[in-house]
Design brief:
Layout: E1 7-12, E2 17-22, E3 27-31, H1 32-37, E4 45-46, E5 51-52, E6 64-69, E7 73-78, E8 83-87, H2 88-91, H3 96-102, E9 121-123, H4 124-129, H5 131-143, E10 146-150, H6 156-165, E11 178-180, E12 196-199, E13 211-220, E14 227-231, H7 232-242, H8 244-252, E15 255-261, E16 264-270, E17 273-275, E18 282-285, H9 300-318, E19 323-326, E20 333-337, E21 341-345, E22 351-359, H10 361-370
Parallel strand pairs: 9-10
Antiparallel strand pairs: 1-2, 2-3, 4-5, 6-7, 7-8, 10-20, 11-22, 12-21, 13-20, 13-22, 14-19, 14-21, 15-16, 17-18
Helix pairs in contact: 7-8, 7-9, 8-9
This protein binds fe (ii) ion and zinc ion (ZN).
Length: 375
């Protein structure tokens, strides 16, 4: 097998494309409009900011007048006399299959407590001060949607340091870093000591939180309050297998969610299971039985499908075999992917104080990408 970063042959097709064969035998077709748009000369592209220089309306619809190539580059002269040079290692990236595959996240689905031995548990100093430690945390979030950071100072300030390293605190109506006890600052079930069935947060926001960070700072004079986690993607796959019509419904029906308190009224409607339009794989779960808004339905079939499909999906999420239940202790910060993993807690007694924050999905994926874990 030859080197993929060398050019073997180049031909100009009769329908305005260059067909390039690389040293590894791969042949890729580039339309002339694409090539002109991807000219990397200094007047077409600002290399320092990685931005294109021209509006798409001023990029001319020109044809290739002539071209030459050597083993590493192709030189094109356009019908308006502009000249472009394309490097082999630039062009080879745009083989569609490889390109698309490289952009796909590859979650490893899990069921119940079996994931406990797989998720990263790492000392806070390793996470904050070493690249390898940071990679292990983000890889665990990408693979399983959960990571645990141990040895953290038992304070909101120490937790905030961890949140910053995970991508930065996302501000919402609940604040940036929040702290909650059983006192009711917000009109939300989370601020009581009742059990909380597993759910995703912020189904009523146009952009739900990306990560949820939780740190139990104190639990005294009582019991319970164990964390429940379940893999939302796993449940969706089970539903697809056992009740394909329910899966189909939940990927299409726009379920409205809402959050109301004095001075606030959030609402958002979207499918409970969001699929990638091309791969048809789940990319986001919006499951929260508490925050469902009162809705009108088109007809009786839609109304009955809504109840049937939500109940069927809820059965997987509420199944103890699918849940990972554990007690979060002071010093351990849990980070979980709110687009995928559902969280809940058992009821509790005593005095319990938690702190945490959200991190936006854009911000934590930015960290993972900068570490070279994703494209
Ligand atoms: Fe929650
Ligand atoms: Zn140019």
């Amino acid at each position: 097998m030859g080197d993929e970063n060398t050019i073997q042959t180049v031909t100009l097709s009769t329908d305005r494309a260059l067909i390039v064969t690389f040293g590894n035998g791969k042949s890729i077709r580039y339309e002339d409009c694409w090539l002109r748009d991807h000219c990397r000369c200094s007047s077409c592209y600002h290399a320092s900011t990685f931005q294109r220089a021209h509006h798409i309306l001023v990029i001319p619809d020109v044809t290739i007048s002539s071209y030459e190539f050597d083993s590493s580059q192709i030189y094109v002269t356009w019908s308006d006399d502009h000249k472009s040079t394309y490097r082999a290692e630039f062009l080879i990236q745009f083989d569609y299959k490889t390109w698309k595959e490289s952009r796909k996240l590859k979650p490893i689905l899990w069921k119940g407590a079996s994931v406990e031995n797989k998720v990263t548990k790492i000392d806070v100093d390793d996470f904050l001060t070493t690249t390898d430690g940071a990679k292990r945390v983000f890889q665990s979030l990408l693979d399983y949607g959960v990571a645990l950071i141990t040895g953290v100072g038992v304070s909101t300030e120490a937790t905030e340091e961890v949140c910053k390293a995970l991508g930065g605190v996302q501000h919402t109506i609940f604040g940036g870093m929040w702290e909650f006890t059983t006192r009711a600052d917000h009109a939300d079930t989370a601020y009581t000591n009742l059990p909380l069935a597993v759910h995703n947060d912020n189904t009523y926001f146009t952009e739900a939180a990306g990560l949820q960070i939780l740190h139990c700072l104190q639990h005294t004079q009582g019991a319970g309050g164990e964390t429940l986690l379940v893999d939302g993607f796993f449940g969706a796959e089970e539903l697809k297998r056992d009740h394909p019509e329910d899966f189909e419904f939940l990927t299409k029906f726009n379920l409205e969610a809402e959050y109301i308190e004095e001075g606030h009224h959030h609402t958002y409607a979207a499918p409970v299971i969001k699929l990638d339009s091309e791969t048809q794989e789940p990319v986001q779960i919006r499951f929260n039985v508490y925050d469902r808004a009162a809705m009108a339905f088109k007809n009786s079939e839609e109304c009955r499908s809504y109840y049937r499909s939500l109940r069927n999906l809820a059965k997987y999420y509420e199944d103890k075999d699918n849940q990972w239940q554990f007690k979060l202790k002071p010093g351990t910060v849990m980070a979980m992917d709110n687009f995928r993993v559902l969280h809940g807690r058992t009821g509790f007694s005593g005095s319990r104080v938690l702190c945490g924050s959200y991190v936006s999905r854009s911000d934590w994926l930015d960290k993972a990408r900068s570490l070279g874990l994703i494209q």
